[in-house]
Structures are given as C-alpha cells and as structure tokens.
C-alpha cells in the first residue's frame, strides 16, 4: 500500500513527478510591476498573469494535469446527451464519494447555485463551519442567511489546535433549535475550511454535526473541494486514523453526508469543472431540472466531455498518497520558511495555502487600510509574487458599516504540481526583504467597489499620508471623521465616516 513515504526514509523525498512540458515564467522588471499594479487599481485580481513571476493567487483551476489526464482529454466523447465520458465521470464520483446521484457543473459555484436554488428560500438559515465567499453569495442570493459557526479555536491564529476547520456543534444546536427544520434546509461543512485558514475538519466533529442534523431532521452536505487534503491532514493529526488509507478516510467523511458540492478545480486536479452529488434520488431530480436551466443537460452540465474525462482521472489521482505527501509538505515548508523570516502565519499550516497574518505583520495599518491587500501589493512590487487578501476587503460590508473584527490575512495558495522548491525559496526570500522594512508598507483605500464579491473588481489606491493618519491605529477608538472632508473619489474614507456616525 502506498503511504506517500519516500522510497528510502533516509533520503530526502524527490518531487513525485517529472517534467514533460515546460512553460516560461514571466520576469517583469520593478518598473513594469509598478505600472501593472497601478493599471490594476491595486487589485491583484486585475493583474495580467503575464506580469506575475510566482502566482499564488489561488490553487483553483491552476493544477498541472498528468499525462493520464491529457490522454483522457483525447478520449472525450463530445455528445450533447448520453456521452460515455459522462459515464466514466459518474463512475469516478460514485467510487470516491459513494453518492449515487451525480450532476456535473461548470465549476463549484455552479453546484452551489443549483443546490441553494433547490433548497434555500427567503428566510432560510444555512449554518456551516465557514462558508466560502461564492457559497455565501449564493445563499444570500437565494434570500437566505449564511451562518458561519466556526470552532472557537479558529479565531486564535496562533493556537496549535489541530482541527480549526471544525464546526462549533453547540452553536449549531442552538441555531437549529431556533430555526427548526422548516427554516434550516441544510447544514454545509466545508472541508478543508478555506476561509478559516485551510484547516481540516475532524472526523469526530463531522460525526457530532451529523448527529445534531439527525436530531433536528436537517440534511448535511459537504463542500468537498479539498476532500483529499482534509483526509490527509486528518490522518496526520488524529491517531485514531493511523493505518487507514486516504481513500478510506475520505469515504468515511462522505458516508456521513447526504450530498456534496465540489469544485473539481482544487483536489481533483483539473482546470475547469465541478459537481453536485446526492444520496436522495427525488432531490437529485429536482436539481437536474434547475441544472438544465443554468448549466446544461445533466450529462455535461456546462462542461466539454473531455473535461469530464480529466475530472474522472484527477479525482482518483487526488487520493494518491505520494502526491498528497508532497503537496501538503510544500505548504508546510513554505510556512516554516516564512516564520523563520519573521513573518507570522496562521498555525497549524493547512493543506493548500499558507495564510500570513498581515494584521500582526503590519500593526501600523488598521483594518480600514486593508493590511492583507497592502501586504499583497507590497509583495508583488518586491518580487512579482501574487497572493490574495482574505480579510476586510474580501468580507467587509460594501457600505463600510461592518464593524466585526476579523483576521487580516494574505493567503499564498500553492497550485498543485506546478512549482518546485526553487520557486517557493524565492517567495520566502522576498518576504525576508519585506520584513526588514515593513513599517514603510502603506495602507490602501477603496476608490470604487461593487456590492457583491467586491474584492474581485474593486479599485484601490495607496492612502496618502494625510488620509492614513485618520485611519491609523486603534480604529474603534478613533474620533468620527468629518464626512464632508472626503471628496467624491474617496469612498473608503466616506464609508468609515458613515460607520462612525452610525455607531
Ligand atoms: C471551499 C470552496 N468552495 C467553493 C469554491 C468555489 O469553486 P469554483 O471556484 O470552482 O466556483 C471554492 C473556490 O475557491 C472554494 O475554495
């Protein structure tokens, strides 16, 4: 049985793949990076990838596919209905998850749209450990309340608690008894918990969630985007799982649920695709009717048949233990290198990304100066490395009135099978340089932003020293800002004023 161990435990493990096709890495000059960032409105999502040297924006849809996946593409049988590629895709999803009803979607959010359109209503409550941003947006789009109930340990960035992805079961019981089965159409557990640091959910916790769901008669669904990494981390951290294969562990998690949404762009190692799966046939039939409306006929669901083939292969490769040992090992090595450069990170390290604690790294920036985004932009300017803010820009209310304190993080997500140790050393080195002059990193203000998922499209600009002085330090104790002092272009400053005035 392959346990992901090196061939010889005394030798350093080599990468478990060798390179067949190469792609040049862009090396823009500092002047080019500056110009690109200005054009992008200080929003890393707006940067052209051709101006990025090491791209850690996401681990989603950016995996290197295997030779077996590429040959699967050629086998794709492009038919509107009844393609054999769908049969192979369905068989792989059934084999890995055990769910009999399988609906392909163009990506994870396609599955979310269909699921919440079928199950959620205005006034519904959907509790979860921490909903991903598109999940939350779809729940809210259906008129329901997305209720995050992370384990209390998740809020302590430095805690070594091994399962910070867990759901707070006592809080869930309170929420379900208040809402009742009529208003709580499902509970959704995201594994790993991307938004809360990429931490795993323990099997014990999922069992408790299941029994709470049973007591209240509420179905349990999984967001299974990173099901294999969750299983790997669970086995590393839970002695009760030692000796079991990752495939068995992953299946034990799925066996506790009534269905799942899945973005196949993560653990399933493809560049496009997702699925929705159910145990219940009647529910699946309802979902298929909605699927046709948004995604396509139920045997292609918005995907080319060749994509279905690549997912079928990728889902099985996701459970390869040598691959998981290497992948999770890369994340841990980057985290350790950053910490030894004096960069505080969320502990323990998760499965797909290192989350830098930008709020602690840049104590001179208040949440309204978006420390995660400011650090991300500084990192890009320094070395052409791109991460993503997970903090007040991503989760703050569009009108700036959301006063909840939240971790201010910069996520460095590692694409699967793409970068090697030299790329990650380069990233650690760039951080070492930033650490030496962190006080000089300026905050940002929003120039324009949409109401939904604003971090994707917002335009920002560095705060001028005069503006920075207004929003620096302990922002909760700041005196109100004169709303008339901000001119039409300074919406962030106006938002802060509104926040202050309403309190
Ligand atoms: C946990 C989780 N759920 C859902 C999604 C949405 O998936 P997609 O980007 O394929 O729509 C993501 C994407 O990053 C995710 O991380």
Written account of the structure:
The protein is 41% helix and 11% strand. By secondary structure, the chain is an alpha/beta fold. Helix 8 (227-237) packs across helix 9. The longest helix has 20 residues, at 321-340. It folds into 2 domains: 30-52 and 321-502, Aspartate Aminotransferase, domain 1 (Alpha-Beta Complex), CATH 3.90.1150; 67-317, Type I PLP-dependent aspartate aminotransferase-like (Major domain) (Aspartate Aminotransferase, domain 2, 3-Layer(aba) Sandwich). The protein has a 5-stranded mixed sheet with strand order 2-8-7-6-5, sandwiched between helices. The chain has helices at residues 30-39, 67-75, 84-97, 108-119, 133-141, 169-183, 203-216, 227-237, 246-255, 281-294, 305-317, 321-340, 358-361, 371-383, 392-395, 421-436, 465-470, 491-502, and strands at residues 54-55, 101-105, 125-128, 145-148, 187-190, 220-223, 259-263, 274-278, 353-357, 385-386, 388-390, 409-413, 444-448, 459-462. The relative contact order is 0.14. The structure holds pyridoxal-5'-phosphate.
Morphology: globular
Head-to-tail CA distance between termini: 60 Å
Domain module count: 2
Q: Tell me the radius of gyration.
A: 23 Å
CATH class of the largest domain, anyone?
Alpha Beta
Query: Residue-averaged pLDDT, rounded?
Result: 90
SS-based structural class? alpha/beta
* The CATH topology of the largest domain: Aspartate Aminotransferase, domain 2
């Amino acid at each position: 049985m392959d346990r992901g161990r090196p061939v010889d435990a005394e030798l350093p493990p080599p990468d478990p793949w060798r390179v067949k096709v190469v792609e040049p890495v862009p090396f823009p000059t500092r002047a080019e990076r500056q110009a690109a960032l200005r054009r992008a409105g200080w929003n890393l999502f707006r940067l052209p990838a051709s101006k990025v040297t090491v791209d850690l924006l996401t681990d989603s849809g950016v995996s290197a596919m295997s030779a077996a996946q590429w040959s699967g593409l050629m086998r794709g049988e492009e038919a509107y209905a009844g393609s054999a590629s769908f049969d192979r895709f369905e068989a792989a999803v059934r084999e890995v998850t055990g769910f009999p009803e399988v609906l392909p979607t163009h990506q994870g959010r396609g599955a979310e749209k269909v699921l919440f359109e079928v199950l959620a209503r205005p006034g519904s409550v959907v509790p979860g450990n921490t909903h991903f941003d598109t999940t939350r947006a779809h729940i809210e789009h259906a008129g329901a309340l997305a209720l995050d109930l992370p384990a209390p340990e998740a809020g302590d960035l430095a805690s070594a608690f091994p399962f910070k992805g867990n759901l707070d079961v006592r809080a869930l019981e309170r929420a379900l008894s208040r809402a009742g089965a009529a208003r709580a159409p499902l509970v959704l557990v995201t594994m790993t918990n991307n938004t809360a640091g990429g931490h795993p959910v323990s099997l014990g916790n999922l069992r408790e969630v299941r029994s709470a769901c049973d007591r209240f008669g509420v179905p349990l669904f999984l967001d299974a985007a990173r099901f294999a990494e969750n299983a790997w981390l669970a086995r590393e951290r839970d002695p009760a799982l030692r000796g079991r294969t990752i495939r068995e562990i992953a299946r034990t998690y799925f066996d506790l649920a009534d269905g799942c949404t899945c973005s196949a762009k993560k653990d399933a190692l493809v560049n496009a695709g997702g699925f929705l799966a159910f145990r219940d046939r009647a529910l699946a039939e309802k979902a298929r009717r909605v699927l046709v409306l948004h995604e396509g006929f139920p045997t292609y669901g918005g995907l080319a048949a060749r994509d279905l083939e690549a997912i079928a292969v990728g889902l099985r490769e996701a459970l390869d233990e040598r691959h998981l040992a290497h992948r999770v090992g890369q994340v841990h090595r980057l985290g350790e290198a950053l910490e030894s450069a004096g960069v505080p990170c969320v502990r323990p390290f998760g499965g797909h990304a290192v989350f830098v604690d930008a709020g602690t790294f840049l104590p001179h920036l208040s949440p309204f100066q978006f420390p995660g985004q400011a650090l991300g932009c500084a990192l890009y300017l320094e070395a052409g490395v791109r991460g993503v803010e997970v903090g007040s820009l991503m989760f703050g209310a569009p009108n700036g009135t959301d006063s909840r304190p939240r971790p201010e993080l910069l996520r460095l997500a590692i694409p699967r099978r793409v970068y090697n140790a030299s790329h990650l050393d380069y990233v650690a080195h760039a951080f070492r340089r930033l650490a030496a002059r962190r006080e000089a990193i300026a905050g940002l203000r929003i120039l324009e932003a949409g109401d939904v998922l604003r971090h994707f499209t917002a335009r920002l600009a560095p705060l001028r020293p005069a503006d920075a002085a207004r929003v620096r330090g302990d922002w909760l104790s700041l005196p109100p800002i004169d709303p008339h002092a901000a001119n039409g272009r300074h919406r962030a400053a106006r938002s802060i004023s509104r926040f202050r005035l309403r309190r």
